[in-house]
Amino acid sequence: MVSSKPWSTSIPMSLLVSLIKHHAGDLRVFSLNTQRPQVTPGVARVPLEIIIEVAEKLSSPEDILSLSLTSSSVYATLLPVLYASVDLRSSRMCRNVIEMLVDGRSDVTRYLRKLVVRPNHVDRRTPQPVKPIDEAWVVQSLIILATSGRLSRLTTFFWDGSEVPQDDSLWSTLRACCPNLRSIGSNVGPKSINPDSELFRFNDLAGFSLTAKTLPDEWDTFLPPEPELPDQLWQMLIVRSPRLEQLRIDVSQRSRRVWDTRRVVDGRWPQLRDLELGDCSMAGNGSSRIYMETPFMRFLALHPALERLRLPSLSSFPRAIILPPSSLPNLREFCGNPAHIKGLPNLPHIRTVTLVHQPLSEKTVSLVCGTLKHMRSLTSLSIWLHLDAQSDHYAVFRNLFDSCRGLKSLDIACSEAPWEMQEFISALRGSRIELTNLTLTRVERAASEPDLRKIATQLAAKNPSLWKLSLRYSFTTWVFLDSIPYVKVGNFVVKDRSKQGSPVVVLEKTAKCSRYRRLSFQLSRWI
């Protein structure tokens, strides 16, 4: 992001948006696939400092890109915002962008603050063949960029290859050449973690992430029987990083690898804001999860700065949360299971809830709704349902919507047998919530492929507040959310509704990528 501003006070967002709308129209209708910046006379009259302020407050990378493409001067002004956070999400993108940067054909490296590199990354939602890339070449290229001083402003780096970088000098190079680097992370593949890795030699970290790669079943059989997190990792985090703000230790539900994270309760990080523990163990060999409940609850109570918290759902992890009412006063986002949210303090101030560890039955959903009613600030909900054929789908949806009437964003997955789409549309229309963003994943009948554009149009017509929709479907049920066998995915935006009485038109967003959009990707919240 832009590090300095020529003005001293922050301008109210409502005023900024109204100014931009007045001069250039609603940001939502800007073209997302424009090949070059278009000159927009209205935007040219808006002071550039206001443009920057708007861009910094926009949450969607596409909106920032759209704003930057309104004119060449705006694009040049927003370069620091566009390229502050870069996520190379595929092997092709890794090769193209890294070659461009190494060859010196772009000076955008001076804007890079956060960099995520994902060679050989497989997106399970788009099962297209991935052309392999030599990860050793990627590592050597990053070392060249770092030693040449082109990554000197980097503050965050995350590696997401098929395995930890085999050339361990990448970490020592980044540590030596990137003086501002305080957030790092890596994934691990089937190989054991090297306890003497340079990855564990950083000091005074603000963020750390370690994730276990989801592996094919035949690879899992070769995993170490009891993989342990090395003492060097805990020494780095607990002893040498007292100002830690973000911590992520994550293992996929589909992996047989289970890390023992009991030592996290020994940490005392007054500035800890984000904590994510994937499907890890808090019991260890011969211990009961009940034995760890008190230390873990004490750990949470001693970290009042926590804003985001994600807990696993394994039986080896404490099931209940019992905390003093004054605990976690700043908690705003939570991910866990229904038993976790029931015992959370500060319910009226939580804004985001994610319940996707396990599918929820009709009875469980009813219990969850009783807790959601107390979350008066809730604006975003992600939930996974599994209802049998005898369930009253309309009643379940209506109860859910009535329990969180301030909801603006909903991501709902239904992995049971097919049900009538009209039940969902009617329940949503009859509720009082005013959704702006909706993601719906469901099972369809194999004999009748749905018209996603038609469904999106129906949803938009019945819900005037909706402007962004993502519809996904499969012909079979699934066991894990990260392995859904998608048949088709459709992403839509609603065209400007300013004309009264005109029919609602939805536009399908394509995945095209222009040369101006190549580096414009946001960093994951938990990295």
From TrEMBL:
SUPFAM superfamilies the record matches: RNI-like
Domain of life: Eukaryota
Gene3D superfamilies, per database record: Ribonuclease Inhibitor
Protein name: F-box domain-containing protein
Organism this protein belongs to: Mycena alexandri
Lineage: Eukaryota, Fungi, Dikarya, Basidiomycota, Agaricomycotina
